[in-house]
């Protein structure tokens, strides 16, 4: 390069008078990068916070939990683990505020020892924690979650009744390590000292109790290694362990869907940015062709001319990327605030420099790469243009550089998709999908031109003929507009469909006849009485389900204890070791569908043929005809797998992985679950009161509250989704504007001519209308069809859910795009329409 | 200085070949001035473009200052233009985003001369626009724009100047000033001049006049 400095100077000088044009270009970059930085920064903060706070998530170095008291033979060994231990017994129970006669279901956690070892237990007053820990020797003090106190307007100093005992409320719990605001709201907790637990009389047979031991180890201990030798004995005793490392992974995983979706948003926003850049720059290039021809005439080489504009674009790309990164950082600081309540960790807000750097780099790369595509043609601008205004370059010769840029763009998109998703297949899929969409749109554009030309309606009115002819005449904008508008619609619609899919997955049906109160742990002897309690109040018994707990001991004759060791089988360990909660019936309920084989039935020889839920079936790598042996509270029971069911887990039903036929489990120890619907909180209160008095072991879960909390979360998620989608939409708009503006410079000459020849304003308007309406409609429709295909593919391969899409909003999007195209198109030609032809002709020197 | 030999140019459009220039030959020595005249569509601009190396001939050769242009690449020809050639266009062709002074600077800067501001300013003063250097083309009248364009054409001290109907877009009075300036500057610098024009009066100011008709050289005052 002879004179790099001069190129910079020319780039700078030239940009002075083109800033408003370049604004569109920057806007596309700014918005795309803002979304990218916002999302990646949030993701980085979330991951870091989970990392940093994993200890607090658990509150200890190791937690062992079991649904039975720890075996006495194992206990001495376990008691030698770690430096300090804290024990907890927890269960759900109704609690009562004697002052206001309030009753509600709460989680009771009876604690002995120094829990929590990590993190702060925030209470009011602060001294309450110390008071609680010193309450040994039968002192009855409790710490109560704020949600519970708030609901009954109770204060520290009041009393609360748990089972048969009354406790003094020592403090209001604001935050407990390892418990999110969400779980505290759904199942608010009452903490009581462990040594008075027996006095409450709540530990009865059949109620669901968790026994946990929290361990504190010396700093630096490898906890996983320490408990490794114990693994077998823990498994045998059905004790599960939880370490900080495991908790980290789990927590990360539970946000996988959210993260994946946000990644998709970032990807789409960036791609829209790319489309915006490409179309804004091709607009810019068309404007600059005359200047380039002069420069060539004066002796500038092709690459010098190209570099002048490439430098401009790169500098502006950098500026746009910096601005976008700043905007994205602001968004990133906002996201944790919105999500604060139901994230398990306090995401502390920190500027994620990694995300900022990545964003800026990506922005410059996008600017240069996608601008190069239209800019390359600058090298081929002939100096002859200075002599002939209507000169057309010979563009038939292939440009090898162009193919290089295409290749680079493909690598960039695939690479970017990989960086966002960290999955090679997914990244290739994204890139391929995009390629297909692009090809489809180009095909449609070519098809349209061919069709209009081939079947030109010569008998139609002048306006129609002129508008249609605009689609295929030299220098037509059909391809550019269809591709850029179509891609914009495609990307936005895909995002919208995906959003709908994800929301539908978590949507909880809260319709009219849906149950909203679940009664658990009803003993067989209490069953009739509890049902009667409801019917007396004219409450429906919507479902009454027996539940038997059991464990899987053998699969096709092989003991599960051996199968567990085989890590190559791909069977989920959890499915082998967990406690199965099983029901029995010969039919399916409304949330189930038969997938394969038969309904559960009892064979003539007395062997139960059972039905397995499809997910379970896969996790256990089962085949129809496999035999499963269960341990039903001491007694072995051989079964044959003869059918699978799909279960809609989002419906409020009692859903089961395993269903037995009638006629086997009836004599086994079991309890019942009963579903009902209560009309309002007063009835709910009175039902709960009577239950706690007459059947203290029965627990009730107020689904209404859960539904409300879930609803709250969902609306927050959708707020964020919409907020992020806004960036994509804004970028899409930029794409639309720049692609339509491009056409202005093409049409000016012709329109002026028509005007000069006497076409009326009205005719001109209608010609423009026909042209843009056709282009907008076709682009939007094609984009939409592609989006539905892409949405289906995403549902199937990425999110693993059934495909649904509501057509109305999508059609609205298409209609809006078409209207916007027309409006922007008309707005653009206003110059031509309102000013005298001569003024327009003179306008551009 | 300029040698045109048997120059032919044809276009193929719609499968049919259209010959717009046929077997044209002439030669100019340094300092010669030449007008190309002829009716519209006779091939004047085509000939000018080929002579200046803006386009490639179908057959025949062009020598510019002893350099044979036919086999040079587009970028090599650009370098030759920057070194030896100046241009004046009918529609001025100033870069709209650059000021008058910057427009004049471009040929100098393209040569790698970074301190050409004084030269450029002197040229602007020479064409009577010393005070308008910071103005953009849109802020100048047509005549003023063409004078800036004259300053630009002479900035790199070209050996040969090509002008395609330099006064075609100007009114009579302005035309006179521009013509006067053009010939003055040309004389001072001793530049070879090739001028395309409709105006017989303007044509008569050059030493030699050739006439094109249907792409053929039909009259040459030097012959
Ligand atoms: N790119 C082209 N393709 C086909 N014909 C062309 C092209 N450029 C010029 N011509 C034709 O060449 C002829 C000569 O044009 P030109 O040199 O511009 O004439 P003049 O400058 O004398 O008016 C004209 O008939 C014109 O239509
Ligand atoms: Mg001409």
TrEMBL record, chain B:
Residue stretches spanning the membrane: none
InterPro entries attached to this UniProt entry: AAA+_ATPase, ABC_transporter-like_ATP-bd, ABC_transporter-like_CS, ABC_transpr_LolD-like, MacB-like_ATP-bd, P-loop_NTPase
Domain ABC transporter: 2-223
GO molecular function annotations of the record: ATP binding
CDD domains noted in UniProt: ABC_MJ0796_LolCDE_FtsE
Pfam families: ABC_tran (PF00005)
Highest taxon of source: Bacteria
SUPFAM superfamilies: P-loop containing nucleoside triphosphate hydrolases
Keywords: ATP-binding, Nucleotide-binding, Transport
Signal peptide: none
PANTHER family per the UniProt record, alphabetical: IMPORT ATP-BINDING PROTEIN, TRANSPORTER, PUTATIVE-RELATED
Protein name: ABC transporter ATP-binding protein
Organism: Hymenobacter citatus
């Amino acid at each position: 390069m002879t004179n790099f400095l001069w190129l910079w100077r020319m780039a700078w000088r030239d940009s002075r008078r083109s800033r408003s044009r370049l604004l569109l270009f920057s806007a596309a970059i700014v918005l795309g990068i803002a979304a990218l930085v916002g999302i990646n920064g949030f993701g980085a903060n979330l991951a870091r916070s989970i990392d940093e706070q994993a200890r607090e998530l658990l509150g200890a170095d190791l937690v062992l939990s079991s649904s039975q008291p720890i075996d006495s033979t194992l206990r001495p060994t376990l008691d030698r683990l770690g430096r300090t231990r804290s024990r907890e017994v927890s269960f759900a129970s109704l609690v009562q505020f004697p002052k206001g006669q309030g009753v509600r279901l709460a989680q009771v956690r009876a604690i002995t020892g120094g829990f929590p070892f990590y993190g702060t237990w925030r209470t009011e007053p602060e001294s309450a924690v110390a008071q609680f820990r010193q309450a040994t020797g039968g002192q009855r003090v409790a710490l109560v979650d704020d949600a519970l106190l708030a609901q009954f307007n109770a204060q520290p100093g009041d009393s609360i009744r748990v089972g048969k005992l009354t406790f003094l409320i020592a403090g209001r719990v604001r935050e407990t390590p390892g418990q999110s605001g969400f779980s505290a709201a759904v199942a608010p907790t009452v903490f009581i000292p462990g040594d008075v637990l027996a006095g409450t009389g709540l530990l009865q047979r059949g109620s669901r109790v968790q026994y946990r031991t929290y361990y504190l180890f010396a700093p630096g201990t490898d906890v996983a290694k320490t408990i490794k030798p114990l693994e077998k004995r823990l498994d045998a005793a059905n004790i599960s362990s939880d370490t900080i490392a495991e908790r980290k992974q789990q927590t990360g995983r539970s946000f996988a869907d959210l993260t994946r979706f946000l990644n998709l948003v970032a990807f789409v926003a960036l791609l829209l940015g790319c489309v915006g850049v490409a179309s804004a720059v091709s607009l810019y290039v068309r404007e600059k062709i005359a200047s380039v021809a002069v420069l060539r005439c004066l002796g500038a080489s092709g690459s010098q001319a190209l570099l002048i504009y490439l430098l401009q674009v790169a500098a502006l790309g950098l500026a746009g990327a910096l601005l976008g990164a700043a905007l994205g950082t602001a968004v990133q600081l906002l996201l944790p605030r919105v999500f604060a309540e139901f994230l398990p960790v306090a995401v502390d807000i920190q500027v994620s420099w990694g995300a900022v750097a990545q964003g800026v780099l990506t922005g410059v790369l996008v600017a240069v790469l996608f601008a190069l595509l239209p800019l390359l043609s600058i090298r081929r601008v002939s100096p002859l243009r200075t002599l002939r205004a209507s000169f057309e370059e010979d563009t038939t010769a292939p440009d090898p550089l162009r193919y290089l840029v295409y290749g680079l763009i493909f690598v960039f998109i695939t690479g970017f998709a990989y960086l966002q998703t960290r999955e090679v297949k997914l990244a290739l899929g994204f890139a391929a999908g995009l390629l297909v969409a692009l090809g489809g749109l180009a095909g449609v554009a070519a098809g349209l031109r061919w069709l209009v030309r081939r079947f030109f309606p010569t008998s139609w009115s002048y306006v129609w003929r002129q508008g249609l002819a605009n689609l295929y005449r030299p220098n037509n904008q059909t391809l550019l507009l269809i591709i850029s508008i179509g891609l914009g619609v495609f990307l936005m619609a895909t995002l919208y469909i995906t959003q709908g899919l994800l929301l539908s997955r978590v949507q909880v049906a809260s319709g009219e006849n849906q149950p909203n109160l679940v009664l658990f742990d009803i003993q067989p002897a209490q069953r009739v009485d509890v049902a009667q309690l409801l019917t007396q109040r004219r409450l429906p018994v919507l479902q009454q389900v027996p539940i038997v707990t059991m464990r899987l001991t053998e699969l096709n004759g092989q003991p599960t204890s051996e199968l567990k060791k085989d890590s190559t089988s791909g069977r989920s360990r959890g499915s082998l070791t967990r406690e199965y909660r099983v029901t029995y019936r010969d039919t399916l309920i409304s949330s189930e569908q038969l997938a394969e084989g038969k309904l559960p039935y009892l064979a003539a020889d007395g062997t139960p043929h059972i039905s397995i839920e499809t997910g379970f079936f896969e996790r256990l790598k089962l085949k129809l005809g496999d035999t499963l042996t269960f341990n039903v509270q001491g007694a072995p029971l051989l079964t044959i797998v003869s059918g699978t069911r799909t279960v809609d887990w989002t419906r409020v039903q009692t859903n089961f992985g395993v269903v037995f036929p009638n006629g086997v489990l009836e004599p086994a120890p079991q309890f019942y679950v009963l579903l009902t619907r209560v009309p309002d909180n007063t009835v709910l209160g009175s039902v709960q009161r009577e239950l706690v008095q007459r059947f203290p072991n029965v627990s009730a879960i107020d689904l209404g509250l859960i539904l409300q909390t879930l609803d709250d979360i969902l609306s927050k998620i959708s707020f964020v989704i919409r907020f992020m989608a806004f960036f994509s939409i804004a970028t899409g708009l930029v794409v639309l504007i720049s692609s339509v503006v491009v056409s202005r410079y093409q049409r000016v000459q012709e329109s002026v001519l028509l005007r000069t020849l006497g076409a009326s304003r009205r005719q001109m308007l209608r010609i423009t209308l026909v042209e843009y309406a056709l282009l907008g409609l076709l682009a939007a429709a094609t984009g939409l069809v592609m989006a539905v295909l892409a949405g289906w593919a995403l549902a199937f391969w990425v999110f693993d859910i059934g495909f649904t899409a509501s057509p109305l909003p999508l059609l609205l999007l298409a209609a809006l795009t078409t209207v916007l195209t027309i409006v922007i198109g008309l707005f653009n030609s206003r110059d031509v329409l309102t000013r005298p032809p001569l003024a327009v002709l003179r306008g551009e020197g | 200085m300029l040698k045109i030999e048997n120059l032919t140019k044809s276009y193929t459009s719609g499968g049919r070949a259209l010959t717009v220039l046929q077997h044209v030959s002439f030669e100019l020595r340094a300092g010669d001035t030449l007008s190309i005249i002829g009716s519209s569509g006779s091939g004047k601009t085509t000939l000018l473009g080929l002579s200046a190396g803006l386009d490639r001939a179908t057959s025949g050769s062009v020598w510019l200052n002893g350099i044979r242009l036919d086999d040079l690449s587009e970028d090599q020809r650009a370098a030759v233009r920057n070194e030896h050639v100046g241009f004046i266009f009918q529609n001025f062709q100033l870069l709209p985003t650059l000021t008058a002074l910057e427009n004049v600077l471009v040929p100098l800067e393209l040569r790698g001369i970074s301190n050409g501001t004084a030269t450029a300013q002197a040229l602007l003063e020479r064409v009577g626009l010393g005070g308008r250097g910071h103005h953009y083309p849109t802020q100048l009248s047509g005549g003023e724009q063409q004078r800036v364009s004259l300053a630009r054409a002479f900035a790199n001290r070209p050996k040969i100047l090509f002008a395609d109907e330099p006064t075609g877009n100007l009114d009579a009075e302005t035309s006179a000033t521009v013509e006067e300036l053009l010939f003055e500057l040309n004389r001072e610098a001793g530049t070879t001049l090739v001028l395309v024009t409709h105006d017989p009066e303007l044509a008569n100011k050059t030493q030699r006049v050739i006439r094109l008709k249907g792409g053929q050289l039909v009259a040459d005052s030097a012959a």
